[in-house]
C-alpha cells in the first residue's frame, strides 16, 4: 500500500534538540532509503539532529518577526510545496500547524498536522479556539496515543485522526539485571510537569541504602531538587548529572527507571528506558504511560499523584531482582513495535488506509499498539 507514496515533506520549526525534531530526524532516516524525503525548517537555525544523507533540506532565511516574517514564510512554503509536489506533507508542532495548513491550501498541497505535546495543551490558550477552526481543513490530525483522540475529538470536530507512536532506536542486546548497578535513574527537564520531587521523596523513603538515584537533565528546578535531597537526608546518594549527550549509556547501567510526570504527549524517556531493559515505574498521567506499560507485565503503573503507591512500587523494584527481570523482559517485548523502521511503515500504511476510507472521523487502526 505504501508504494503509492514516493515523496514526503516534513515541516518543522527547527531541528534543534526536541521531541518533535527527534521524530522528524528518525522518520527521515528510515524513509530516505526508498522514498524522497524533504525537510523544510521555518527558521535558519543550525540543526542539532543530523540531516540524513540524501534528504533535501530547506531553511527559511527571511525576516525573524512581525508581518514581514509571516509574509515571507507564506511565500517560502508555497515555493517548497509547488517545487516538491509531495504525496504526503506533515507539519510537526501544534503551534506552527495552522499556518502550514493555510499555506498548503494556497499551494494546493494537503497537510497532515502532527501534535507531539500533551493533548491537554491543545485545550488551553489560543490553541483552544484557533486549532479547532483550522485543523478540520487539514488532511488529518496525527497524535501519539488513542487517549489523545478521546480527549480531543469532541472539541476538534470534523477531523480525521491518525495515531502514531514515536519511533525508537531499539538496542539489539542489553545487560541483564546482574550486569547493572544499584541505580534508579530518571531523565527529563528539571521542573514543570516532570515532578522529580516525587521520585526523590520515594527514593529517600523506599530505596535501600546501597542504591543511588541519578537525575539526568537540567532546568529551573535543579537547585530546589538538590535542596529536597538534602532535606530528605540523601544528598550523597542523589547525583545530578546535568544534560547528558548519550542517555543510552546511562539506561544500560541502571536497574530501575522512575517516571513521575503529571502530563505527557508521548514519554520518549520512558519508552527508551523500556527498550534498554530497565524495570520501570511511572505515574498513569495523560497521556502515554498507560499505552506503553501493562501493569505488572512491562512495568509498574501508579495512579497519578498517589505518592504512597509510588513509594511502595519503587520499594518493590529496588528489593526484588526477580520482579525487575520480569518487567524488563516485558518492557523489551513491548517496545519492539516502536522500532524506527516499523513505525515508518505504519505511518505510510496508515496514510494510505485513511485515503481509501470514505468516512470521516475514524481513527486509523495501527497494529502493535498496547491493549489494556
Number of helix segments? Answer: 13
Cross-sheet strand order for the largest sheet:
3-2-1-4-5-6-7
Overall outline: elongated
Q: Uncertain segments of ≥5 residues (pLDDT<50)?
A: 358-372
Task: Outline the secondary-structure elements.
Blueprint: E1 7-12, H1 19-31, E2 36-41, E3 56-58, H2 66-84, E4 88-92, H3 97-107, E5 112-114, H4 125-134, E6 140-143, H5 146-152, E7 161-163, E8 181-187, H6 196-206, E9 212-216, H7 222-231, E10 238-242, H8 247-253, E11 254-259, H9 268-275, E12 279-283, H10 289-292, E13 300-302, H11 307-319, H12 321-335, H13 340-356
Parallel strand pairs: 1-2, 1-4, 2-3, 4-5, 5-6, 6-7, 8-9, 8-11, 9-10, 11-12, 12-13
Helix pairs in contact: 1-13, 2-3, 6-11, 9-12
Give your account of this protein's structure.
The protein is an alpha/beta fold and 372 residues long. It contains 13 helices and 13 strands. The strands form 2 sheets. The chain has a 7-stranded parallel beta sheet with strand order 3-2-1-4-5-6-7, sandwiched between helices. Strands 10-9-8-11-12-13 form a 6-stranded parallel beta sheet, with helices on both faces. The radius of gyration is 21 Å and the shape is elongated. The C terminus is likely disordered.
Amino acid at each position: 500500500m505504501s508504494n503509492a507514496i514516493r515523496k514526503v515533506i516534513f515541516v518543522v520549526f527547527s531541528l534543534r534538540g526536541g521531541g518533535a525534531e527527534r521524530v522528524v530526524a528518525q522518520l527521515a532516516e528510515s524513509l530516505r532509503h526508498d522514498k524522497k524525503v524533504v525537510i523544510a525548517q521555518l527558521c535558519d537555525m543550525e540543526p542539532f539532529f543530523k540531516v540524513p544523507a540524501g534528504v533535501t533540506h530547506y531553511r527559511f532565511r527571511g525576516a525573524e518577526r512581525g508581518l514581514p516574517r509571516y509574509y515571507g514564510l507564506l511565500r517560502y512554503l508555497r515555493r517548497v510545496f509547488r517545487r516538491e509536489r509531495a504525496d504526503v506533507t506533515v507539519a510537526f508542532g501544534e503551534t506552527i500547524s495552522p499556518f502550514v495548513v493555510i499555506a498548503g491550501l494556497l499551494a494546493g498541497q494537503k497537510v497532515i498536522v502532527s501534535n507531539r505535546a500533551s493533548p491537554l495543551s491543545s485545550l488551553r490558550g489560543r490553541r483552544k479556539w484557533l486549532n479547532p477552526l483550522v485543523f478540520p481543513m487539514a488532511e488529518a490530525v496525527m497524535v501519539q496515543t488513542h487517549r489523545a483522540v478521546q480527549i480531543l475529538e469532541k472539541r476538534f470536530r470534523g477531523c480525521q485522526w491518525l495515531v502514531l507512536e514515536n519511533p525508537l532506536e531499539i538496542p539489539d542486546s542489553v545487560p541483564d539485571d546482574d550486569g547493572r548497578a544499584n541505580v534508579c535513574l530518571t531523565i527529563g527537564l528539571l521542573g514543570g510537569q516532570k515532578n522529580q520531587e516525587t521520585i526523590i521523596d520515594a527514593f529517600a523513603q523506599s530505596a535501600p541504602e546501597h542504591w543511588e538515584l541519578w537525575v539526568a537533565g537540567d532546568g529551573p528546578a535543579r537547585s530546589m531538587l538538590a535542596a529536597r535531597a538534602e532535606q530528605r537526608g540523601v544528598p550523597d546518594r542523589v547525583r545530578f548529572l546535568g544534560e547528558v549527550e548519550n542517555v543510552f549509556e546511562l539506561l544500560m547501567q541502571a536497574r530501575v527507571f522512575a517516571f513521575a510526570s503529571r502530563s505527557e504527549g508521548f514519554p520518549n524517556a520512558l519508552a527508551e528506558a523500556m527498550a534498554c531493559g530497565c524495570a520501570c515505574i511511572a505515574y498513569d498521567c495523560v497521556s502515554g504511560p498507560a499505552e506503553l506499560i501493562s501493569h505488572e507485565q512491562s512495568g509498574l503503573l501508579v495512579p497519578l499523584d498517589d505518592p504512597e503507591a509510588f513509594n511502595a512500587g519503587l520499594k518493590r523494584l529496588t528489593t526484588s531482582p526477580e520482579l525487575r527481570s520480569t518487567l524488563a523482559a516485558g518492557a523489551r517485548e513491548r517496545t519492539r513495535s516502536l522500532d524506527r523502521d516499523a513505525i515508518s511503515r505504519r505511518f505510510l500504511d496508515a496514510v494510505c488506509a485513511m485515503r481509501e476510507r470514505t468516512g470521516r472521523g475514524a481513527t486509523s487502526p495501527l497494529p502493535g499498539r498496547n491493549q489494556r
